[in-house]
Every structure is written in C-alpha cells, then in structure tokens.
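Q: Could you write out the predicted structure for this multi-component system? I'm mainly interested in how the pieces pack against one another.
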Amino acid sequence: MSKLELLPINIAGEWRLGAGDESHSLYPATGEVVGRLRAPSLADVDEAIRKADQAFRHSGWAQKKPHERAAVLQRVAQLIRERAEPLAQLQRLDNGKPISETRALVASAAGTFQFFAAACETMEETLTPPRGDCMTMSVYEPMGVVAAITPWNSPIASEAQKMAPALAAGNAVVVKPAEATPLLALELARICEQAGVPKGIISVLPGRGSVIGDAITQHPLVKRVSFTGGTSTGKHIARIAADKMMPVSLELGGKSATMVLEDADLDHAVNGVLYGIFSSSGESCIAGSRLFVARKLYGDFMERLTAKAAALRVGDPADERTQMGPLISAKHRESIESYVQLGLSEGGQLRTGGQRPEGALYEHGYYYRPTILEGLKNQDQICQQEIFGPVLVAMPFDDEAALLEQANDSVYALAAGIWTRDYKAAWRIGRAVQAGTVWINTYKQFSISTPFGGWRDSGLGREKGRLGIQQYMEQKSLYWGL
Ligand code: NAD
C-alpha cells in the first residue's frame, strides 16, 4: 500500500476527504500510485451542489461586472503560466502523456482562461431595431450551477475548456474529472480559488462516472451539463437531460478519416498522418484513425509511413525525446489488443506493431507499439468502431466519389484531414466531407477562437470560439414601452 497521503477533494470550496470509496491515480509508465483520494459520497455530491447554488445566489460572482470576472480569469491564466512546469509534470504522472505534450496542454489551459476573460468582457448584448412604441434588447443571464464532466485523455485542457466559459458567464461549476485522472482538476480549482473565485463557486468531485457523474447529472439544481467522453455515456446523459428539460453539450467519440490525394507532398503527408494517429498514443477523440490513400501512391506512401511508425520513440514520458508514451491503463491496453485481434479476424494484415514493446523499460507500464493494419474494408468493424489507441487502418481509394462515400460512411463525424496541393480539390472535399473540423495539409492544430464539436454520434453543440460562453447562459429579451 502506498504511503501517499489521501488528497482532499473540493466540496463547494471546502477541502476535505470525500466520504466515498478510495481510489488511486496510477502513473501509466510504471503502474506506481501517484495520488490517493476518497471519492465523495452521494451526500457529499448533494451538499456540494446545494452550496454551489447558494454561492451562485449570494457570493456576488454572478453579479460582478464582466470586467471584474475577466480580471479574476486573467489571474487564473497567469497563475497557470507561473506553475506551468509542475502542472505539466503532474499531468505526466496522472495520465502518462510525454512531457512535451503535457506542457502544450498546460499552455492551452492558460490560453483558454485568457480567451474567455476577453470573451466575457466583449459579449454582445444587442439592442434590436425599435418598433416605434417599444424598444427591445437581448441580454444573457448565467444559468446557476453547471456541471463539467471530463474524460482522462487531456486533463486540465478539457477542464479549462468548460470551467473558463462557465465561470466567465457567472455560473457556479461542479467539475467531475475522470476517475483515472483527478489531480489536475483539483490543482486548477486551487488556482481559481487563489485567483479570487469565491468559495463555493467551484467544486471538484472525482469518482465513478456511473455513480458520481450520474448523481450530478440528475440533480435538480444542476442547470446544464457540458460533457466530454464516450458516445454511449453521452447518450445516457442526453436521456436524463431530456427528462429534466436541461440543455447539454456533448463532445463525443470519433473515427476520423485522413485522405491523401495523388498530388500530396509525400513527406509532409507522411509526417502529418503519423502525428494525427500516434501523438497522445492515439488516445484522442480526433485521432486520424482511418487512412485513405490514392491507389497510385499507396505502395510508396505506406512504405514510408510504416518505416516511420516502426521507428517512433515509444518510452518514458519524462524523456523529452519520447514521441509516444504508454496507454492510460492495463484495461485500456487489453481493449486495444482485442480490437487488433478483431481487425485480424476480419482479414486485416499487420504492417507494423500489433504487440507490446519488449525490454526492461516497458515491463511495468501500459505500453503498446504503433500499429498499422491494411487489407480491410471501410464497412469492417475495425474501421467503424472507435479504438481510442495507436491503431491505424489504411485503405487505398480509386476516385474522389469513392473516397467521399467511404470517408462519410461512419456514425462518427468529428474531424477529417486532407493532404493535397490542389486547392480546388481541398475545397471540394473539405466542403463535402461530413465533420465538425477539417484540416487541410495539417492535422490536430487548434485555435481557441475556432468552434469545435462533432456531427452525428460525435456530439451536440460547440466548445471554444467567442460564442462558447453563450452555451453557459440563458438568453432573455427585454421590451421597453416608449
Ligand atoms: P467515458 O464516457 O467513459 O467518461 C467520460 C467522463 O464521464 C468521465 O468523467 C466518467 O467518469 C464520466 N461518466 C461515465 N459514466 C457516466 C454517467 N453514467 N453519468 C455521468 N458521467 C459519467 O469516456 P472516457 O473513456 O473517459 O474518454 C474516452 C472517450 O471520450 C472517447 O470516446 C473519446 O473520443 C471521447 N472524447 C471526446 C472528445 C471530444 O472533444 N469530442 C475529447 C476527448 C475525448
């Protein structure tokens, strides 16, 4: 048993041990315990939400002028930047991403708070054209207690994307981080408190989704849920929301197509496709996991891609040179292994990977080799189901019509990538492919000012962008008789 002390959780600004089950955060590279805490009990959850509702009504946060809330959020951004390195190291321990990636996620969290500080000050409350005998104005009001439910793959960035706009809008926020990665959400809550967010406005309630997440979603005082996670969980939350007539935003799974056209810059495309699937060990909703390559290029392209995938440096997340770290857990690795078996049983052949790396470094961590399968059809299960790991399925295509038909043949529609020098083809395919985000000659690039979200089973609603704040507000129209 680890000697680490139990960490307090945040129940409406009170830092104390939860009264629920004990859970451990494991470092995926070694399996060591890096955090111990006790989840909240259902009574703790109820207490946190009731106190959050009181804080929303009485702490003065909702009544602050936008520039006053903006100043607090600017301080959050500044404190994140001042503590960037310890936060990045903590995130490496919590979820096993290489340090180069966790640094980028911490920087993005700071940028998110800064962006929504500005968005809060520049929200447009519009005067609509007068009718002659009355004047009307559209304004936005905060909702009350809103919930942010996040997955384990990008902690701190996921939480920041929900907390920053929800706080900017004047709400109280109850955060439910993934059971495997609670540490960064707790740190972020401490930073918000130090920056001046009033007590009670933030709670962090880690624990099992089916217990704690469900209790939060069902609670009558929770007025909105912003969820990022798997599609089946998202649908479950949407059903509860329908009964409560509660708005939700759902950022869900993906099975994104990357398309390499005949005239693509080969080196650029190979590197982009490689990064699109294997960065973050493929544990990314936008991972480019289905690859379509023009048949004429297929042989040459796959040779280069396979050689580079096999040479990726898989290893210690603390090493600056590491390109791919371990997977989040032993259980998740088993799930990925069973998907690879499924692909093989459907007639797929391995180009590379399909096994755990060998050697002392990998003995205790949840490592898996970058894996590429081919010889499959887009209708096969392995091409339709989200694997959420470092597994790419490659297929040749013959013409644009066939390419689009296959790329769009998926229940998911989160992202897509196009590699070509032909800007007209990029425009045509970019418009015809069904996805919330399409990258052209790049992949996995983000701007906080650009809305992000999915179509179909990939989700409902959009995060980021100037309008991201509005999903945490209710709109109201005021009429003045003249
Ligand atoms: P998950 O759905 O299992 O869990 C996500 C969060 O929901 C966790 O905090 C979990 O505890 C909670 N949860 C689980 N059951 C719940 C319930 N019944 N009620 C309320 N909350 C519940 O997903 P995961 O395995 O943590 O994450 C992987 C999934 O997330 C993948 O499908 C991935 O594509 C998706 N994802 C999507 C985006 C996006 O922006 N679209 C980003 C990252 C991850």
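A: Regarding packing and overall arrangement: Residues 149-153, 176, 178-179, 209-210, 213-214, 217, 228-230, 233, 236-237, 251-254, 285, 386, 388, 414, 454, 459 surround nicotinamide-adenine-dinucleotide (CB under 6 Å).
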